[in-house]
Specification:
83 residues; mainly beta; five-stranded antiparallel β-sheet; 20% strand
């Protein structure tokens, strides 16, 4: 099975770069100052407490709150309507 190992160097075939494990213990959520969990499947840093996920770009966590996405399933806003 020719997989072509030396073809993986081109910029076109760049796979998502995983987080450096040694970085993880230094990383805390800028909002809650709590440790974050690395989610390998989505390549994100998860803050379970706040229900947000920070993306990891090229192995570098993007730790600005604007870049984070919410992970918690919030109830739809329609439920807030007055009767």
């Amino acid at each position: 099975g020719g997989q072509g190992q030396d073809l993986g160097q081109g910029p076109g075939s760049a796979r998502p770069q995983p987080l450096e494990p040694s970085l993880l213990r230094f990383l805390v959520c800028p909002l809650s100052k709590r440790p974050l969990r690395y989610e390998e499947a989505t390549n994100e840093l998860i803050n379970e407490e706040l229900g947000i996920a920070y993306p990891i770009i090229d192995g570098i966590p993007n730790m600005i709150p604007e870049a984070a996405r919410t992970t918690q399933k919030k109830p739809p806003a329609e439920g807030l309507k007055q009767p």
